[in-house]
């Protein structure tokens, strides 16, 4: 079982062989429910990737505000944490990056249903996204 190997042409790469996978295929359990993902500009990194997969694969409906993050790629997933002992500085160096093959906008994801909270919602601590979604879902 080999996990990391050095490629002569470049950096380390992940190498997984058939022996690394379970011998029995997993049972697929499907449920048929409507999925809504509530989100806003604070969604970035892993939540950005989650929302992007949901939207691209049409697994659910994104509701709320445009996300943080960038459609041009992300450099997360694994980090090397370097601690400089004399200065006390800590540096996080990304080890994995994923970038699209085609040109993409340098912006977050636009939700399928845009809901913008008003100043009144904010002043009254009202979750307008959740309130509107609950109203739409009532039979």
Give a quick precis of the structure.
With 139 residues, the chain is an alpha/beta fold. The chain is built from three helices and seven strands.
Can you give a write-up of this model?
- The chain has 139 residues and is of the alpha/beta class.
- 19% of the residues lie in helices and 19% in strands.
- It is built from three helices and seven strands, in the order E-E-E-H-E-E-E-E-H-H.
- The strands form three sheets. It has a three-stranded parallel beta sheet with strand order 3-4-7, sandwiched between helices.
For this entry, give a set of tags.
139 residues; alpha/beta; 3-stranded parallel beta sheet; two-stranded antiparallel ribbon; 3 helices; 19% strand
- Main-sheet strand order equals 3-4-7
Q: Are there runs of 5+ residues with pLDDT below 50, and where?
A: 1-7
**Terminus-to-terminus distance:** 53 Å
Reported for the largest beta sheet, the result is: 3 strands, parallel
Total strands: the figure is 7
Mean pLDDT: 78
**Fraction in beta strands:** 15-25%
Number of helices: 3
Which geometry do the CA atoms define?
Answer: extended
The structure class reads alpha/beta
Rg computed from alpha carbons, rounded to a whole number of angstroms: 21 Å
Query: What's the helix-strand series?
Result: EEEHEEEEHH
């Amino acid at each position: 079982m080999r996990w990391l190997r050095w490629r002569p042409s470049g950096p380390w790469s992940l190498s997984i062989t058939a022996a690394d996978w379970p011998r029995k295929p997993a049972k697929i359990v499907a449920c048929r429910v409507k999925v809504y993902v509530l989100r806003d500009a604070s969604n970035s990194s892993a939540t950005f990737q989650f929302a992007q997969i949901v939207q691209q694969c049409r697994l659910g409906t994104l509701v709320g505000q445009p996300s943080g993050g960038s459609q041009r790629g992300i450099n997360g997933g694994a980090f090397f944490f370097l601690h400089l002992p004399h200065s006390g500085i800590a540096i996080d160096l990304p080890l994995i990056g994923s970038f699209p093959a085609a040109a993409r906008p340098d912006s977050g994801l636009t939700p399928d249903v845009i809901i913008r909270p008003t100043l009144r919602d904010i002043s009254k601590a009202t979750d307008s996204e959740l309130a509107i979604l609950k109203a739409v879902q009532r039979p």
